[in-house]
Specification:
The complex is a heterodimer of chains A (209) and B (201). Chain A is 54% helix and 11% strand. With 209 residues, chain A is of the alpha+beta class. Chain A has 2 domains: 100 residues, Beta Polymerase, domain 2, CATH 3.30.460; 91 residues, no CATH class. In chain A, helix 6 packs antiparallel against helix 7 and helix 7 packs across helix 9. The two termini of chain A are 37 Å apart. Chain B has 2 domains: 125 residues, no CATH class; 51 residues, no CATH class. Chain B contains 8 helices and 2 strands; from the N terminus they run H-H-H-H-E-H-H-H-E-H. A two-stranded antiparallel ribbon of chain B has the order 1-2. Chain B is globular and about 45 Å long. Classes of the chains: A alpha+beta (209), B mainly alpha (201). Chains A and B meet through strand 3, helix 4, helix 6 and helix 7 of A and helix 5 of B.
Chain lengths: 209, 201
């Protein structure tokens, strides 16, 4: 699927915003569309990811749109410039409005890597506690979540921008990188949990292989 | 615009309602201490729960420089400084341990504990077969979707829980303490709405 043009993305943005949200978005100095729709690798159900830089400060998230508003001052902070999101936006974002001068100063920080590690630990800790209480659909959800987060971590550790989620999934289905399993073991010594979560092959799978 | 109904209007599903009441209490308990309102904290100075491992409550020496305007207000700074003191963090120790502020951002926390508590609640509703409509879900439903089935999509309590879920979703793997405080207040209001009414009250 070819990447959509700026005008197609603009049209998409207009279709997905209510009058009040549209007003807030268009008062922004910069409007950037990022994520799977900016590349045209989205699923039909994917939302539209939008980053707005300007006076509004809030977040709007619904099944149709995920819109983040950031203050202009924040764009110059090392927290932002080193973040996973800033690096993703730099690599995959489409500027609908504004100059994006901050782009020149983006550089992935070790903080972004540590934050991802912290999140992976938090998810695994919660999974250890909650796994048996979760309905199968939630177990599947977290199986996918933890695998994607480890993929993202591996990219961040290499200093690379994290691509939209459908590309991560595509890569996983094409090549089930053993590094993901090894990284999971780095965070969790509970082999049983990693097997239940699907990050390690189960005993029966090992016997077959 | 259609007017929102003030109270749940569908026929009461007692089993589901009981599970939701219990589950929402657990969700409330999963909030880190730093998201408690000031009034709650002042009454719990000596007996309040210890902040969880996922909290970043220590004020980094130069963290405020990089904070967004939206969260740089004196009340928050004072409160977080207070928590740091309660933990026994003296100024020198802070500087030594957190000289680089990479891991510490005093106004953000990781929301996973809360998100998991919500998912456990929805899971329990699914496991108990308490809501027939949930059987058709092949993906994990949100709590707002569950409330929509129980109380009606247009009800105020459904709208509140959708707002709550938006607040706890965070971005960049974390949520602002201000958002979580608002989420906690919203949740407390929902719990109050769903609490059993005493006869004659």
């Amino acid at each position: 699927m070819p990447a959509p043009t700026r005008s197609i993305l603009l049209e998409e943005l207009c279709q997905r915003t209510s009058a009040s949200l549209s007003d807030a978005i268009w008062r922004s100095e910069e409007i950037i569309i990022f994520g799977s729709r900016s590349l045209g690798v989205n699923r039909a159900s994917s939302d539209l990811d939008v980053l707005c830089v300007g006076p509004q400060l809030r977040k709007v998230k619904n099944p149709s749109i995920d819109c983040i508003f950031l203050a202009k001052k924040e764009m110059a902070s090392h927290h932002w410039l080193g973040s996973e999101l800033a690096n993703h936006v730099l690599a995959y974002g489409v500027w609908v409005e504004g100059d994006g001068l901050w782009r020149n100063n983006v550089q992935l920080s070790t903080r972004a890597v540590r934050r991802k590690e912290q999140r992976i630990r938090a998810i695994l800790r919660n999974l250890a506690y909650s796994w048996d209480s979760l309905a199968p659909v939630f177990q599947v959800k977290y199986n996918t979540t933890i695998r994607r987060e480890i993929q993202r971590l591996l990219l961040l550790r290499e200093g690379e921008a994290v691509p939209p989620t459908p590309l991560l999934d595509q890569e996983w289905h094409l090549m089930q990188d053993p590094k993901i399993r090894r990284t999971a073991e780095e965070f969790c010594s509970d082999t049983g949990l990693l097997q239940r979560v699907g990050l390690l092959p189960s005993s029966s799978e090992l016997q077959i292989s | 615009m259609r007017e929102r109904t003030q109270t749940p209007k569908k026929k009461t599903n007692r089993v589901a309602l009981r599970i939701i009441r219990e589950g929402l209490d657990e969700v409330l308990d999963s909030f880190p201490y730093s998201t408690w309102d000031h009034s709650e904290r002042s009454g719990e100075e000596s007996s309040g729960p210890t902040p969880t491992a996922t909290e970043n409550v220590v004020v980094a020496s130069n963290a405020s420089e990089a904070l967004p305007d939206s969260i740089q207000n004196s009340d928050q700074k004072d409160e977080n400084a207070g928590v740091a003191e309660e933990e026994g963090g003296e100024e020198d120790a802070d500087e030594e341990d957190y000289d680089d502020d990479y891991d510490y951002d005093p106004f953000f926390v990781n929301p996973e504990d809360i998100q998991f508590a919500v998912d456990r609640l929805v899971s329990e509703l699914m496991r108990q077969d308490s809501i027939p409509e949930l059987k058709v879900f092949s993906a994990a439903p949100s709590l707002a979707e569950v409330f929509g089935m129980l109380f009606g999509e247009e009800s105020q309590v459904t709208e509140q829980i959708a707002y709550f879920e938006e607040l706890i979703s965070g971005y960049e793997d974390r949520a602002s303490i201000e958002d979580l405080r608002e989420a906690r207040r919203t949740l407390a209001a929902i719990i109050e709405t769903l609490a059993p009414r005493r006869k004659g009250a």
